[in-house]
Design a protein that fits this description.
Blueprint (H helix, E strand, L loop, with lengths): L2 H15 L2 H10 L7 H21 L2 H24 L3
């Protein structure tokens, strides 16, 4: 494995797990007033485009990490809507 691939894998892992602490916080507190739904929407679009780009480039690292991020983002969005104060 070359250095460029290793850097790409590391970047993908850190990006993919970046929203996990926010998701855990929302689940623990059952409150999501500080979560921006507009930010989550922008992330959905960006992650969807990254997955599509990975498919076009046939790059499993891009596809896998951004698909994982998309799932975490979807979970966060679901719970943010569920726990938003009305």
């Amino acid at each position: 494995m070359n250095t460029v691939t290793l850097i790409g894998i590391c970047a993908s892992v850190f990006t993919a797990v970046s929203l996990i602490p926010q998701l855990i916080k929302v689940l623990k507190e059952k409150e999501a007033g500080d979560v921006s739904l507009l930010m989550l929407l922008a992330l959905f679009v960006g992650l969807g485009l990254w997955v599509y780009y990975g498919i076009l480039k046939d790059d499993i690292i891009i596809i896998a990490s951004n698909s994982f991020s998309f799932i975490i983002n979807a979970l966060l969005a679901f719970f943010a809507v569920k726990y938003k104060k009305k």
